[in-house]
Amino acid sequence: MVTSEDQPATSAPASTTLANRYGGQKRALSRKAKRNIGIAALAAGIGFMAWISTSLNTETVTFKDIGYSTTDATQAEIDFQVTKDPDTGVKCAVKALDSKFAVVGWKVVDIGPNPADATADGGRTTVHRAVVRTESLSVSGVVDSCWIPDADK
Q1: pLDDT, mean over the chain
Q2: What are 63-80's pLDDT values in tens digits?
Q3: Do 146 and 92 contact (CB within 8 A), yes or no?
Q4: What are the residues facing 75 on neighbouring strands?
Q5: Phi, psi dihedrals of residue 149, rounded to the nearest 5°
Q6: CA distance 150 to 110
Q7: How many Å apart are CA 131 and CA 83, to the nearest integer?
Q8: How does residue 82 score in pLDDT terms, banded at 50, 70 and 90?
Q9: Which residues, at least 6 apart from 138, have a Cβ–Cβ distance to it below 8 Å?
């Protein structure tokens, strides 16, 4: 009879250390790599700040549709508000649409400078109504776009 003491020892399976399983330790970044990353981050930050400062200095105009009404098949009234610098004149294109979203009326509206005390925000936001002649019955009216005429030159 053979006992466990008489049997030869079996060899252990291959070494399964953590380094073999997951790879060795990662190398730390060199001093030169850290410096280059810092320089790139600083340059990106300076570029971002320059973009922000120049974009804030450009004149902008925004608009918001408020409502519309259809008087008859030949006319629509479109109410909208415009936010801009009070000293700047703008132009807004408004359009009347039919039930299939086809344009049945179009008009460019001139909006002049606002008095500074016209509204609570110092004259920046004003409300306007445009009367647009239509080819057929309109079911909606919207502002297509607004722009500063002198900015085109």
Answers
A1: 84
A2: 999 999 998 999 999 999
A3: yes
A4: 72, 133
A5: -60, -40
A6: 13
A7: 20
A8: very high
A9: 68, 70, 76, 96, 97, 98, 104, 105, 132
